[in-house]
Amino acid sequence: MTTMDNAGQAHSAQDQALVEYKVDRVVDETSTDTKIVVLARQDGRPDSFPIWVGAAEGHAIKLALDTTVTPRPMSHDLIKSFTEHLGVTVRRVVISDVKNSTYYATVYLENHGVERTVDARPSDAMSLALRTHAPIYITQDVLGRRSTANLDSWLAKLDSKSVNQQEVRES
Amino acid sequence: MITQMHLKGLMFDPYNNAYIVVLRDEDGSEMLPIWVGKTEAGAISMALENVAAPRPMTHDFMKAILDAYDAKVISVVITDLNENTYYAKIHLTYEDSEYTVDARPSDAIALALRANAPVFARESVLNKQSSEELEQWLENLKPEDFGKLDS
Fold it and tell me: Would you call B87 an interface residue with chain A, using a CB distance cutoff of 8 Å?
């Protein structure tokens, strides 16, 4: 596991340890105008991590996950196109913090050996990571601080939905 | 030939359940309506109204990546409008080189507003998409439709 040295110095090295995740699926939350991006551990261990995002943000992730080709470049395709033109590589995306139930992401870029970090919403970070095949990590700190109460109720809901095969339905 | 355009406003089109970005040239003789989706309209509206979101929105993130490497948006050109396919080019400078990147006009305009870059339209686009179409559409619009502009 990598230890980050330039983000959140207040945290211990242990907290900053990264766990690699991948976008597993995008679930419709039909009651509200949101979608749930379910991240699964890259190593296959059963510890999924849901992130609620807006409908448009979820759609952008779903397009990338399904490698859907749109007639015109979508916003994150344009961002990818910018990085390609400038010779910038998206090294990794880290879900690095959570405050008041809002997740924060950091996008690590590199060009000619110059690394830059850019603050982003996790939805934008994941949309770009999927399009550029960059790995997605969650810090141990964020994994430890997520609200399990929310997660349990969500999983229960998801389980009941799964029976009806509705969870993967996409508009 | 290209003409500099100014963002005149955003309107809701209740018939198509979409938004219209209205661009107009300096003296008001040319008008260019561009139909965009709700999300795209939101990205333009936030920049237009100078609304600071608590978290960077997609085009703020886009600009932050360009800023991180000192790449500058020089201009945006609406190059073609077909029935469902709109084309724009974003001109960038980075390390003394110029780059041209293909984009949808909605993304290009949302970025141009954040980068304070001028928006141009090709003459051929203005000729093709005559303002007659917009005027006709405006005539058919009921007064109550205007109330939805701010929603």
Answer: yes
Of these ranges, A28-42, A150-164, B87-101, the one predicted with the greatest mean pLDDT is B87-101
| CATH of the domain spanning B2-143, picked from 3.10.690.10, 3.40.50.300, 3.40.225.10, 3.40.50.620 | 3.10.690.10
Which of B38, B56, B66 minimises the CB distance to A121?
Answer: B56
ipTM higher than threshold 0.90: no
Distance CA B146, CA A35 (A): 31
Total-model pTM: 0.85
Which residues of chain A are within 8 Å of residue B86 when distances are taken between CB atoms?
72
pLDDT tens profile B116-135: 999 999 998 887 765 556 66
For residue A72, give Cα distances in angstroms to A63, A77, A87, A117, B118.
Answer: 13, 9, 22, 28, 22
Chain B residue closest in CA terms to A80: B62
Comparing alpha-carbon positions, the chain A residue that sits nearest to B106 is A75
